[in-house]
Protein 1
Amino acid sequence: MKEIYIQRIYEDSKDKNAYRILVDRIWPRGISKEKADLDEWKKELAPSTELRKWFDHKAERFTEFSKRYQKELKDKTEELKAIKKIAKEKPVCLLFGAKDEKHNQAVILKEVLKSL
């Protein structure tokens, strides 16, 4: 399997050969479709609107957010398997818009994918 990694969508691409997937429910501010250079936008893999609003990017809520988000992902096995299949062929970059690079849904999604 190739690498699965995360990156802020505001940064320049680390690997031009990677399959780029935006995993936010809301399109990131200030990013054009051209600049995003996405292969897919998987908003259905993002946390639910209710969970996203509850978390509110507060680091002290991250542990509970992680548990709740992983529970939501249990219903998304087909989408997760599709990403794993892509990762067998090429690196996969999970893109997110949050400023906090340690406390966001892409961190959790990457770990879930690696555990499949």
Protein 2
Amino acid sequence: MKMEFFKGNRQSFVEKLADDSVTVFFSGQAPYYSGDGQYPYTPNKNFYYLTGLERENFILQFVKKNGNVKTTLFIERPNPDIEKWIGIKMRKPEAVETSGIETVSFTDEFENQLNRLLMDGELETLYLDIERQGFNTPPTQAMVFADTMREKYAFLTVKTVQKHMASLRVIKKADEIEALKQANLHTKAGYEAILENIKPGMKEYEMSALFEYKVKCSGAKGLGFPTISASGGNAVILHYVENDSVMKDDDLLLLDFGALHNNYSADISRTIPVGGKYTDRQKILYNIVLKAQNAVIDAIEPGLPYAKLNEICKEVLVVECKAIGLIEKDEEIAKYYYHGVGHYLGLDTHDMGNREQTLQPGMVVTVEPGLYVAEENIGIRIEDDILVTVDGHENLSVGMPKTVEEIEAFMA
């Protein structure tokens, strides 16, 4: 991604801030899972969107007064002794070149500099990247910082930037769309490797391991999320994680996977026959899901209410499932289809965006209807990534075998 992309994002963001405010973003840090073992580091996505930087323990600060904005980046001070163990830290010239932020200080200066800004009491609002996924989820670094600032500077009003960031990130720019297309191409490489190598008797985790290997060989940085590789009855569990069952000849394998490119994630689902051929019953159910997906994709255009997508999906599933006798009443579809038809996609797999709004050009949504028939050990989901364009839509997931005929022909 070019530096100008991140500069433009910052310019759009600061226009949304009130005067007499200070805004702070943290790049994050990989948590420890046991002893001195750490999880892999993933940059805070809002921080990355505004800087292009992927380093731990950095801080981004905006100060806005009288319409003027001062932007400061705080990076870790180099320590030659520590660098012998963990590698060279980013220096100021590299940080400036990547982000385009000219004013760079060290993080050990952050608190004193912030205190000097707040001493005269002219700054009234503190914006932080605060979000909570659940009432009892552990506090983030921004949440802890908010509590500290409320205690030390009681005159400050603390607000979250989530609404501002969502309004920016939900509309994808050209660089972002290209990154998502590349992520889909990497995903295609991994998917085709599975189609070529799957055999009855193999373990589900062999498929997820093969997928990760192939997408990295194709140039992907890694995965957007842990791969779901669910065969037989496991596929009725939406977020199945064990991936350790033996795949049988007459099983379907539900795959939910996505590669990363420049921190943007693809999100694709395919359901394939382990033995290379769908049974007649599997074909019937599969084609119902595919019909629902096609109906939703065909309807995507600017101005369509986001919520309408799931309504279209359910209408098709209800009609088709009644026709085959799977259900008798409309409301019974909830037994076999128990999730929404999609979500926004971007830097996060479930990306930021208001689901109460209408579709606009530049939005990218997933379309992923499913049927989960536990009594028959059949779970089917089909998912593509769809860009909303000025005159309709574009499928970013092209070229990945999806119909019964395409999948069986490829596997043959």
Protein 3
Amino acid sequence: MSAFDLERECIMTERKSPAEKIDTICLKGMVIYPHLQGIFGERYCSSNRIVVLKDTPSEIKVAVPEQSLPCIDEIRKVLPRQKRLDFQLGDQLEIEQVFIRGYDPFDLSHSR
């Protein structure tokens, strides 16, 4: 193996996927708030499995599974420039559980 090949191999192993640079979040016990999901549209959030966690005047915090990372660019395009998008990586199964709890068709998980 030449020095060039060795250097190239080291560079290749140092590269990480974009998902490895994102903070992860635990979503166990988390519930969906429709008024927060409405920021991007409930249908859009549901189809891309986006959970909006917080909305302040300066930032929006969301949790997304790894498969939904490409839609982050779409979201950034529609946000006002003064608002920052803070996204965190959530586990696929935990996000599914959040949607199941949040959109219970029989309204069993909500107290009256």
